Amino acid sequence: MALLEIKNLHVGVEDEDIKILNGVDLTLDTGDLHAIMGPNGSGKSTLAAVLAGREEYEVLDGEILYDGENLLELEPEERAEAGVFLAFQYPVELPGVSMTNFLKEAVNSVREARGQDELGSADFLQYMRERADMMGLNADLTKRSVNEGFSGGEKKRNEIFQLAMLEPKLAILDETDSGLDIDALKNVADGVNKLRSEDRGFLIITHYQRILDYIVPDHVHVMLDGKIVRTGDKDLALELEEHGYDWVREEAAAAA
Amino acid sequence: MSTSETEYLKGKASEEYKHGWYTDIESEKAPRGLSEDIVRYISKRKDEPEWLTEWRLKAYRYFKQLIDSGHYPDWAHLDYERPDFENMRYFAAPNGQAQYESLDDVPDEILETFERLGIPLEEQKALTGVAVDAVMDSVSVATTFKEKLREKGVIFKSFGEAAKDHPELVRQHLGSVVPYTDNLYAALNSAVFSDGSFVYVPEGVTCPMELSTYFRINEAGTGQFERTLIVTEPGAYVSYLEGCTAPMRKENQLHAAVVELVAHEDSEIKYSTIQNWYPGDEDGNGGIYNLVTKRGICKGDNSKISWTQLETGSAVTQKYPSVILAGDNSVGEFYSVAFTKGHQQADTGTKMQHIGKNTKSTIISKGISADVADNSYRGLVKVSANADGARNFSQCDSMLLGPDCGAHTYPYIESNNPTAQIEHEATTSKVGDDQMFYCHQRGLGEEEALKLIVNGFCQEVLQELPMEFAVEAKELLDIELEGSVG
Ligand SMILES: Nc1ncnc2c1ncn2[C@@H]1O[C@H](COP(=O)(O)OP(=O)(O)O)[C@@H](O)[C@H]1O
Ligand SMILES: [Mg+2]
Questions:
Q1: Choices 3.30.450.20, 3.40.50.300, 3.90.190.20, 3.30.1780.10: CATH for A4-255
Q2: What is the ipTM metric for this complex?
């Protein structure tokens, strides 16, 4: 069943005469993992932000259905509660906000939306420990303020850890692999693989093919200038690695 | 800042003050206005010794002289009408009683008042580990756990009782840190001070529980002028907390307290305040003028005084809890959160006076403003010529919640010793759209997100509060941030 359907999506920036997405079409079934690849500036993060509900972007045309419902009608927090998770390309720091408090509120608001009981402090801490263990996250990080003073790699791992905590239906990873050394990359890939399941879809945005050596996608899309110009299976990623983005660009130009 | 956030913040000033009710109890009040007769009346009602009456009168004469010569302290970044000293009452005793012998004598209405404020005065109901002195208007109505403290030799009494039971101790220290000549309000307080607490911790004793005084203004048209004096002998330790609320009233009421701390060698005083006086309504009418003088002296070597304050209430707050670092190696700390919204104004900070050698001070100030409120930090770090090796670290952070509020920082440094190391950092921030969005993406609504971020901003200060009160402080901040978000 289609978890996410993006149809002819056109997006610009409010109050400015900028168009970023120029007719994106994409259908993602529950249980599938899609990768979107594309050069810098092609609109990948914008797509992720629009899915998560960032206000500064304006949808000019098209629609997004999530579980068959109009996703664009929901507030960002309602989307989160409905099971949409975004691992940010640049996670922000929340000075003084402890990971425990932050995640307890987050987990409980998502649980409440799903009709589950709130977790009390003891149960929550237990759950957090289990998940940190499962994700191979240094437990010390869970005792600090959210992302404050975390290294680049730690911030990315923390995003995947939060994914594991919140158990979304749709997980969007925006360049979680960028800037990671090989060990951190494997750790993140490991985490994602553990979290793949029949009732969860993944949209993995990446600039490099590298992470797809560890996370095998069901479908690969190439985005260029705000449009998906090619779709294929995992081999497309390898082709892209070999020929570079100029190859798709030429192909796209020839096709037009 | 997103529009929805601005909308949301606008709604906050109008939200109701939780402690704004009034207890209907008969009260014996002094006639309005101030004179030598009024000062004598107060002293007599409190059955005070002659020396104290004389001291009050001296203070009164000094006050009068300041007023007559136009010495009014209006240098702070504050805009408010001068209190009408002639039209105020300087003494109100609920139930006409200036003192209660025991809890059994305290009328039910008063017990209920405090119970409603979350301060039960019956020991079996009380928070374990906290002894409370409860002051309503000008009178201390009860002090809990006296027995338990007495075993350790700790004195924790209303000021009035202490002046009678321990005249030598009180006389020795009263006005020793804040003389009545200090400023107009210190002079006024010294002349008419009503009640407050006296704490004395003998040599080598660690006070076995938190001590707390809870101040409640109940009567209309009266000022609150409490006086607190805390003395720790060598090697002693005490942690003390004051809390305060008042009913909602259309007119402004004056609160002019004086707090004096004396720490002898190797002793430590930790003084925390959760100030939640009525701030006035959404149009800026009414509310308490909180004009307070607080100062401590680290008299002995290796002594330490630490001020922690959470200031959320009052229409106008002007206070600078300070430390005179006289003993060598003594330590002064000031941790402050001042939250202003609606039409509230706060001008607060500290003075750290380094006199002894290798003295050290730390200042962490967090100011938060919303709506059209104004919030200033004003601090002085002064290093005397003999204070070799003095060190200070100051950090003053302001957070603006909206486009129409103000934050100001006035750090003053006077160093007369080249070996002093003084560091000052200041930041002003807004709650970032990115931060809010990050929280929303994790399922947190507008209000929850803002509470988390503001609490995080204050964390460094809140963690200094005694555990028993940290929760209360967090809740208070949350209530302050609560609005009518749809
Ligand atoms: N808020 C914005 N305002 C103006 N331009 C933007 C904004 N967000 C993105 N853009 C522009 O849109 C294009 C796509 O950006 P982005 O989605 O971040 O690309 P990618 O993630 O693929 O590198 C870039 O040219 C970028 O500068
Ligand atoms: Mg990007």
A1: 3.40.50.300
A2: 0.96
